[in-house]
From TrEMBL:
Phosphoprotein in keyword set: no
InterPro entries (UniProt xref): TrmB-like, Tscrpt_reg_TrmB_C, Tscrpt_reg_TrmB_N, WH-like_DNA-bd_sf, WH_DNA-bd_sf
Residue intervals of the Transcription regulator TrmB C-terminal domain: 110-171
Species the sequence originates in: Metabacillus niabensis
Coiled coil: 129-156
Protein name per its UniProtKB record: Sugar-specific transcriptional regulator TrmB
Pfam family, any one: TrmB
Keyword Coiled coil attached: yes
Keyword field: Coiled coil
Domain Transcription regulator TrmB N-terminal: 9-75
Length: 275
């Protein structure tokens, strides 16, 4: 009979020594650690380690004193506690695995978002999920609509850094005013938005076409990594321009126009992405 119970307790994650100690206490309690060792066959060198493990798990109770005494949690209560814990673990596993599966699928997909409001809603969702850093490239018009969510993120301890096209002022974000904001607005004939949340997801697209605005959202590392790095290199360049503008413009023209001409396929710099 006892051997069968040992096997059952082992299935409940009891070690052999824990099972022997618990059954001994069920037969007679309270007992000192010495008495549990003597009656159960658990080596005296191991008994207090075993009893501490059972107590920490809530399977036995300890009466403190100069000579602590031990008593078992009743068998029905022990089984009830184990069942509750198992059900919680199953629920947690089910939820976590579903979230992981969904996240894993999302990491392989690129989703198209249509409409300016829908794009900004997705950007807000990205902001709300961030826990470490937000990189945001944005015009003043869209920044004003995102300001509340960005402020809340900063209050959570998220580092918010903004590459701004137009006069954006903020008391919670690191704002870098792009040195060519006006020229870029004219050349592209429209406004875009790019956000990288925790270097793990990106929303990027045109937001100045109303319902015809288009953006992509993805967690695909093949896009998230290079887009995030491009934003970081924009920040590098703005820091360098802030400190060494005169020297750089002496070599490359005002606002680095010679470099822009060198790498542009449009003689007038006017892009044709926006129709």
């Amino acid at each position: 009979m006892k051997e069968n119970i040992f096997d059952i307790l082992k299935n409940l994650n009891f070690t052999e020594y824990e099972a022997k100690a618990y059954l001994t206490l069920l037969e007679e309690a309270p007992l000192t650690g010495y008495a549990v060792a003597k009656n159960s066959g658990v080596p005296r060198s191991k008994i207090y380690e075993v009893l501490d493990s059972l107590a920490m798990r809530g399977d036995i109770l300890v009466s403190p004193g100069n000579t602590p005494q031990y008593t078992p949690v009743p068998a029905k209560e022990l089984i009830k506690n184990r069942r509750i814990k198992a059900e919680k673990n199953f629920e947690l596993a089910e939820k976590s695995l579903a979230e992981f599966e969904s996240s894993a699928n999302d990491r392989e997909n690129i989703w198209n978002i249509m409409g300016r409001n829908e794009i900004l809603d997705k950007v807000k969702a990205c902001i709300s999920k961030a826990t470490k850093r937000i990189l945001l490239e944005v015009w003043k018009e869209e920044f004003e609509e995102l300001e509340s969510e960005l402020r809340q993120a900063a209050k959570r301890g998220v580092n918010v850094t903004v590459i701004a096209y137009g006069e954006i002022v903020s008391d919670f974000a690191n704002v870098y005013l792009h040195y060519m904001g006006d020229e870029i607005t004219e050349e592209y004939g429209g406004r875009w938005i790019v956000i990288s949340g925790d270097d793990s997801e990106v929303v990027a697209g045109i937001v100045s076409l109303g319902e015809d605005s288009r953006a992509a959202w993805t967690m695909h590392v093949g896009l998230v990594m290079p887009i995030t790095e491009v934003m970081i290199h924009d920040l590098y360049l703005m820091e360098i321009m802030e400190k060494h503008r005169e020297l750089l413009e002496e070599s490359f023209g005002k606002n680095l126009v010679h470099l822009r001409r060198k790498f542009s396929i449009y003689p007038d710099f006017k892009k044709h992405y926006v129709k």
